[in-house]
Design brief:
glycoprotein; single chain; Glyco_hydro_27; eight-stranded parallel beta sheet; lipid metabolism; alpha/beta; 18% strand; glycosidase; 13 helices
């Protein structure tokens, strides 16, 4: 078992590489995304409350406003795969499934905007989405214009069914197409995730193209999945950490806090670690039915403040000794107290070290304070 401790350090470091010039994601994106919790459930006859439909997103938008999520900083309501009709319309445009989205995406966007929130949508750089719906290959300009006309605010662009030698070109072409629409659309890419098996990704180009990007495997609702993502991040940090900063972020995937697979200590671990890594905070859970402890955790203002620090530096491993390590995260705000983030104990997690508390504790006078890690493989 390797114990990784994280340290928050108050100092300034050099800037990251040049970011995508669309003025978005100056701090990590915060919102809700359907995939890990609701997957590709399209059976609205048998499961109307949980199928991928306009009703689901409207309800989540309502809850985000009423239950303090918007106030905490979560602003995007994001559709993932399985929303479209199986075929484009006669004009070659994507269209929402008419049964599950009878009002269409434009009406849904208007509804979400009326709540003071923003709408995200999903598409794919290849010929098909990962679930087999129409992809954007050959339609980048058309799809970008469609999303802009609908009032979409974020595009998650997946990488299935695409020739890997054309992957980078496809992602760059969609970035240019989005920019040409004149609408500010945050661009979430999976470019490096699909390119790693072929070659080392060009993170300078990725940062100039995307607002955040997935690097490693999909998260699932399990502690082993989270540890695997953290281990990958530590192994490749020298490559990926320098690219992170205002306008562009490494995305370790969704927060699965409030679901079924994690103990509360493990949920605290994921929240603390994602905050330290300056990761997008995109929840995938059921906000209509979430336990109070998980809700309190996800809305904790001290942890969110670390994640949203304007300096925007990702935590990174600085040393290993005797099976232990240390990480640092620079912060810009001197009012952020590193030791307010977490205390740690092994009492409830067996061989895995977990936080006993991720919430305010007396502030230390030291400029450096140990903050939580987890037991990484």
């Amino acid at each position: 078992m390797h114990l990784y401790l994280f340290i928050l350090v108050l100092f300034s470091v050099g800037p990251a590489a040049v970011a995508l010039d669309n003025g978005l994601a100056l701090t990590p994106t915060m919102g809700w995304l359907h995939w890990e919790r609701f997957m590709c459930n399209t059976d609205c006859d048998r499961d109307p409350d949980n199928c991928i439909s306009e009703r689901l997103y409207m309800q989540m938008a309502d809850v985000m406003v009423k239950e303090g999520w918007k106030e905490a900083g979560y602003e995007y309501v994001c559709i993932d795969d399985c929303w479209p009709s199986p075929r484009r319309n006669i004009f070659g445009r994507l269209q929402a499934d008419p049964k599950r989205f009878p009002g269409g995406i434009k009406k849904l966007a208007e509804y979400v905007h009326s709540r003071g929130l923003k709408l995200g949508i999903y598409a794919d750089v290849g010929s098909l989405t990962c679930a087999g719906y129409p992809g954007s290959l050959g339609y980048y300009d058309t799809d970008a214009q469609t999303f802009a006309e609908w009032g979409v605010d974020l595009l998650k662009f997946d990488g299935c069914y695409m020739n890997l030698t054309m992957l980078g070109e496809g992602y760059m072409n969609m970035s240019k197409a989005l920019n040409k629409t004149g609408r500010s659309i945050l661009y979430s890419c999976e470019w490096p995730l699909y390119e790693w098996p072929l070659k080392k990704p060009n993170y300078t180009a990725i940062r100039e193209t995307c607002n955040h990007w997935r690097n490693s495997q999909d998260v699932s609702d399990s502690w082993s999945s989270i540890k695997s993502i953290l281990a990958w991040t530590a192994a490749y940090q020298d490559t990926i950490v320098p690219s992170a900063g205002p306008g562009g972020w490494n995305d370790p995937d969704m927060l699965v806090i409030g679901n079924f697979g994690l103990s509360h200590d493990q949920q605290e671990s994921q929240m603390a670690l994602w905050a330290i890594m300056a990761a997008p905070l995109l929840m995938s859970n059921d906000l209509r039915d979430i336990c109070p402890r998980s809700k309190k955790l996800l809305q904790n203002r001290h942890v969110i403040a670390i994640n949203q620090d304007p300096l925007g530096k990702q935590g990174f491993l600085t040393a290993k000794a005797g099976g232990a390590g240390a990480q640092v995260t620079p912060t810009k705000r001197p009012t952020l107290k590193p030791d307010r983030l977490c205390r740690w104990t092994a009492s409830t997690c067996g061989r895995d070290l977990c936080p006993s508390s991720a919430w305010p504790s007396p502030s230390s006078t030291n400029r450096r304070s140990a903050v939580p890690g987890a037991s990484w493989p």
